[in-house]
Amino acid sequence: MKRIGQAYNVYAVFIDMTSYEAMGGKFRQSRITRIYCLLINATCLTLLPRAFWKSAKLLSAADWMPSYMRVTPFIMFTTNYAAIAYTLISRCYRDAMLMDLQRIVLQVNREMLRTGKKMNSLLRRMFFLKTFTLTYSCLSSILTVFIYQWRAQSWSNLCNGLLVNISLTILVVTTFFYFISLWHVAKGYDFVNQQLKEVVASQSIDSKRKSKELRSLWALHRNLSYTARRINKHYGPQMLALRFDYFIYSIINGCIGTIYSTTDQEPSFEKVFGSLIYWTRSFDFFLNDYICDLVSEYQIQPKFFAPESSMSHELSSYLIYESSTRLDLLVCGLYPANKRKWLQMVGSIIVHSSMLFQFHLVMRGGL
Predict the structure, then answer these.
(1) Alpha carbon 87 to chain centroid, angstroms
(2) Do 167 and 84 contact (CB within 8 A), yes or no?
(3) Transmembrane stretches, by residue range (predicted)?
(4) pTM to 2 decimals?
(5) pLDDT beyond 80 at 73
(6) For helices 72-89 and 31-60, what crossing angle results, to 10°?
C-alpha cells in the first residue's frame, strides 16, 4: 500500500496536483517542486482552453454526431476546464491539508504498531478497489488519444489530445486524494473501536492502565474528528465542483455514448472501451461517497460491549463525549455525502440522459 501511495504521489506532482513529495514516509516540499508546479499550473491554465476548444470541434464534427447535438461537447469541455482550473488554483489548500493528515496518519500507525492491531478487510478492499478505478481511469484516458484520434493523422491533434486527456486525470486524482484522506480517518476510528473493545473486555489490565488507555483513545478520537472536519472544509468546494462536473459529464456522455453505440460504421472495440471508461468512473465516484458513510459509521459505532454495571467514570465520560460529537460531512454545508445522495444523483443522471436521448429520437424522426 505504501508503494502504491508513493507511485501516485509522483504522478500527482507530475500533473501539478501537489508540490509535496512523499519521502521516507513524510511529505516534503522543495524549491524545485514549487517552481515546477507553478510553471505547470500557468501552462495548463493558458493552453487548456484552446486545447479543449479543438477537442470539442473534433468531436462535434464526427460523422456519427447529429448536427443538433454538436453543442454538447462544448458544454462538457467547458465544465471540465472550470473544474480543472479551480482544482489547480486551490492547490495550496490541499498542500496544507497534507501536513495535518501526515500527523494523524503517523499517530494512528504508531498506535497500531504498539498494540499489534490490523486494518479490517473492508478498508483494505476499498483501498484496492479505489486504486484499480484510479489506475484504469488514468491509463484509459491516455490510451483514448491513441484509440480514438489515430485517424486524425496529425501530430498537432495528437499532442492536443494528450494535453486534454492528461489534464482530465486531474479530476480523478483529486477524488483519490479526498478518498485516501478520509480512508486514513476511517482506519483511525476502526482502530479506536477495536482497542476500546479490547481494553473494556480485558480482565488482566488494572484500572489505572485502563484509564490511561481510555484517555489516549479519547485524544486520538478527538484528533481524528478534527482532521475529518478539516478535510471536509478544505475539500468541500472542490468536491462540489467535481460533483457538478461528473453530473454534466455523465448526462452528456451517457447520451452521446448511446448514440455512438448505435452506429454501424464504428468498431465494436471502441464502443466497449468507451463504456468501460464511463462505468469505471461512475464506480470511482461512488467510492468517494461510500467512504464518507463509513467514516460516519465508524465514528459513532455502537458500544454494546460496554456493560453499564461495570462502567468506570472514564469510560462513561468517553461514551457521552462520543455520542454527543456526531460527524456530519456536509459538502459546503449543502448536503451530506453518502450512498443515498449518490443514488439520488444517479437517478437524476438517468432521467436527464433519457430526456436528451428522447430529444435525439424526436429530431431524427424516430419517435
Answers:
(1) 13
(2) yes
(3) 35-53, 73-93, 127-150, 162-186
(4) 0.87
(5) yes
(6) 170
Q: Report the pLDDT value the prediction gives residue 299, as an integer from 0 to 100.
A: 84
The total number of residues shown for the chain amounts to: 367
Alpha helices per DSSP H over the chain:
2-14, 31-60, 72-89, 91-115, 121-148, 155-201, 207-261, 268-299, 313-323, 339-364
- HSE-CB at 129 with a 13 A cutoff on CA atoms is 19
| Spatial separation of the C-alpha atoms in residues 223 and 188, rounded to whole Å | 10
Is the four-CA dihedral 271, 274, 276, 279 of positive or negative sign? negative
Please give the Cα distance from 70 to 61 (Å, whole number): 8
Q: Which residues pair with 331 in a beta bridge?
A: 335
Strands 330-331 and 335-336: antiparallel
> What are the Cα distances from residue 26, in Å, to 15, 117, 205, 229, 274?
20, 22, 34, 22, 38
CB atoms within 10 A of CB 43: 12
Q: What is the dihedral of CA 89, 93, 95, 96, to 10 degrees?
A: 160
pLDDT of res. 27: 79
Angle at 260 between CA 254 and CA 265, to 5 degrees: 170
Most confidently modeled of 14-23, 116-125, 143-152? 116-125
* 7-56: pLDDT as tens digits: 887 888 888 778 877 777 677 888 888 888 888 888 888 999 999 998 88
**pLDDT per residue as tens digits for the range 319-354:** 777 777 777 788 887 888 888 888 889 899 999 888
Positive or negative, the Cα torsion across 6, 11, 13, 17? negative
C-alpha cell at position 153: 493523422
Q: Assign 153 a pLDDT band (cuts: 50, 70, 90).
A: low
Tell me which residue of 168, 149, 148 sits closest to 80, measured CA to CA.
168
Asked whether 182 and 291 are in contact (CB, 8 A), the reply is: yes
Confidence of residue 149 (pLDDT cuts 50, 70, 90): low
Alpha-carbon distance of 88 to 101, in angstroms, equals 20
Q: Which three cell numbers stand for residue 74?
A: 462544448
